[in-house]
Amino acid sequence: MNTHADRRTPVEDLAGFIETAYLKVGLPEKDAKLAAGLMAEADRIGADGHGVFRLPQYIERIQAGGMNITPDIRIDSERAAMAVLNGDNAMGHLVIHRAAQIAMEKAETCGIGWVGVHHSNHAGPAALYAKMPMERDMIGLYCAIGNANHLPPWGGTEMLLSTNPIAVGVPSGEQAPIVLDMATTVAAYGKVKQKVMSGEMMPEGWMVDKLGQPLTDPRRADEGFLLPIGGPKGYGLGLIIGILAGTLNGAAFGRDVIDFNADNKTTTNTGQFVLALDIAAFMDVDEFKRQVDVVWETMKSSPKLPGFDEIRLPGERSHQVSVDRGTHGIPVHPDLRIRLDALAAKLGIDPLT
Amino acid sequence: MNTHADRRTPVEDLAGFIETAYLKVGLPEKDAKLAAGLMAEADRIGADGHGVFRLPQYIERIQAGGMNITPDIRIDSERAAMAVLNGDNAMGHLVIHRAAQIAMEKAETCGIGWVGVHHSNHAGPAALYAKMPMERDMIGLYCAIGNANHLPPWGGTEMLLSTNPIAVGVPSGEQAPIVLDMATTVAAYGKVKQKVMSGEMMPEGWMVDKLGQPLTDPRRADEGFLLPIGGPKGYGLGLIIGILAGTLNGAAFGRDVIDFNADNKTTTNTGQFVLALDIAAFMDVDEFKRQVDVVWETMKSSPKLPGFDEIRLPGERSHQVSVDRGTHGIPVHPDLRIRLDALAAKLGIDPLT
Known about the structure:
Ribosomal Protein S8, Chain: A, domain 1; alpha+beta; Wheat Germ Agglutinin (Isolectin 2), domain 1; Hypothetical Oxidoreductase Yiak, Chain: A, domain 1; 11 helices; 3-stranded antiparallel sheet
């Protein structure tokens, strides 16, 4: 993470740049600030493919009329512990931020809160939203339908499923919080793109071609598809996430999913959901956090396999990155910087410092 | 599934046999009937390692004083949409049945209901409980901490995690319901035991030895551990299930997990949870079921990879088995029948017909 340590951008500068870009294309002040803050936070926690990296694409979609910059994000239906939120084709960040707020409010009274959304959009890294309830001593869980299909059902060849991720954030005491953020495929599609950029081959097990044979050349990614974790199990898990995040909310799933990389205009009708669990409803919060520390320390204390220096907990590396970047700023890859400079010139705003 | 088609036991006869055994060791009439019905149902849906197969072990545990046959299953804490249930060391089937009932009641008013349990026990196949809410047009989700640790944290060698399964049941319209039931390991431990019985080797990827090398001889299973799906991802998922089903409910996790195969006496303090989502709170129930049928048909209609006859949906095979066994009865493996005959003789009850 220190490759570009000689040129780091402070988190607030990055957020400021994104905010200015959004203001320029017409987002209301409050929305521009909120979306920008969440995107800079994505970079801070190390989700390099899901932060400012996405800005040019989001701006293009907004300018193409594919996202609503003056949305009326509203509750379609609700009961005491759940709601279905209509994102009105807003930026996904704004929709899920609202969903998480509602889920937490409901959890505060009911013990848990579940908010599903439809007509949302790509919202960045899943961890961002699973972590929100942690600030209120709640456990957060977030699932999404990916914004492009990358794999078929198990045994098939038609790409009907995405990498449908699941993220869970668990507050801890002395240790870093435990934050799982995983695609239901062996590799996320972003990792394939990274291999193209680095000129490396992919290991077997990431992708197969349309005959089911291993595909290891990332430049041929278009000729194959990602593999789900555990074969049919990951397929099943991705399918269930599709039903819970999509079908249950009246959002797109299967053949209806719009490839947002290829199409900037069509409403994606993205589906996601956030679940918040209020720890205090289950047990004493401090005691819970102590027990999470025990889990952390127990796992860490296991003897190690040959070749492993360390046993990691989910979210540990991201936490380390976030501490480093919070202090020293965010390394923006030179290629990305070129794209962002071009964007700034196009929008007539100051380039990123 | 037709290997022993010449000798099938009707589901109700199997349930009757189990019930009689439980009555004989002192379970109250209602509890004996309920647990027996659930165990026979496990066999009906094809979970051969989780139905009557477990009866001798459960009876041994009861006779050794390791399970409470007159439990006071009670709510420890609750809010509108959640509860923590104290199983009082009852049979897991009784505890989770109660948990599912409470979750459904809460979902009926609040839209969703989450019930965690502690001081429960092994409860059979996860699908059994994920399916319960389906009868009330709800989606069910169930997670459990397995009753013996079979794998280390990723990169470690101390077995601190179990196969912690997740199951989800989704009601459908014309098609069979979609029911996912998966361990977070590549293979469930029962599959390893089956390989021992059949004299076959395991494929690479199921287990590794304590040096991280592939272990394919199932008779050497004691010398190694199961692998999680997707490597570190399955480890993370299993860990999170451990926290949600165990830590959050004050149940055992990590070093505290009792190996219930090796120890019949110690209270296991098993943790599980059930989540019910009332579909009507989200959308019109009939429309949802139609959309689930669309998901089913969409997946089925994908062109197939070479070597695949069919694309399956999660729970499809189990549904077919359950229809067959409901009509023609349950094939009880001759080896198991010998064990059940011995149990009947020991208890002084009629053998299974």
